[in-house]
Design brief:
Blueprint (H helix, E strand, L loop, with lengths): L1 E13 L4 E6 L8 E8 L10 E5 L7 E8 L4 E4 L7 E3 L16 E7 L9 E9 L7 E9 L8 E9 L4 E12 L4
Antiparallel strand pairs: 1-12, 2-11, 3-8, 3-12, 4-7, 4-11, 5-6, 5-10, 8-9, 9-10
């Protein structure tokens, strides 16, 4: 028996003007997993600009994760616990001033078993931020949303506004069993 994944677009948002967040509400409870794809850039041009993921509007101590990221010469890692959101550090802004108008950071965020009402929600993410005058930042994180409530809302915030052309796509994944003859 093989397992086949099917993926369906639940919602998308392509910015035609700057805004401070993306939000997906009333997420249908008919899939097994969620997959959030982001192509974003912050209006902040100095210092770090972080990407923040908030589930179900909860901003208490319900997020814990491990992360690792690097830029070719420096590796950073950490294991924050009891945080108010999932955070992707310093990856979504034109900090070195070299991004063209069509240059965006990417982040893929996966939430497994998002409708489960007895277990915490496992999450993972991978992200990349281009640079022209320095080395790109790439990283990944894995963690838990410490809640047994099904996910029905996802909010994505950043430091500063997301610029025009930033986009967010939310997909539902449905695992189905199929029998394959060999």
């Amino acid at each position: 028996m093989a397992i086949e994944n099917t993926m369906e677009l639940i919602g998308k948002s392509y910015l035609t003007s700057a805004t401070d967040y993306f939000e997906f509400t009333s997420i249908p409870q008919t899939f097994t997993d969620l997959y959030l794809r982001l192509s974003v850039r912050s209006s902040t041009t100095s210092g770090n600009s972080n990407l923040l993921i908030i589930l179900n509007g909860v901003t208490g101590t319900s997020y814990r994760w491990n992360y690792g990221q690097g830029n070719g010469s420096t590796i950073t890692r950490g294991a924050p616990s009891s945080q108010p959101w999932f955070e992707v550090n310093g990856t979504i802004n034109n900090e070195d001033g070299t991004w063209g108008s069509n240059t965006f950071a990417t982040c893929n965020f996966y939430i497994g078993n998002y409708t489960n009402s007895t277990l915490y929600k496992g999450v993972s993410a991978e992200y990349a931020s281009p640079r022209a005058s320095s080395t790109a930042v790439v990283g990944s994180m894995v963690g838990d949303f410490v809640s047994t409530t099904a996910i029905s809302n996802i909010q994505v915030n950043g430091t500063g506004n997301f610029v025009t052309g930033s986009a967010a796509y939310l997909y539902g994944l449905l695992r189905s069993s199929t029998t394959t003859s060999v």
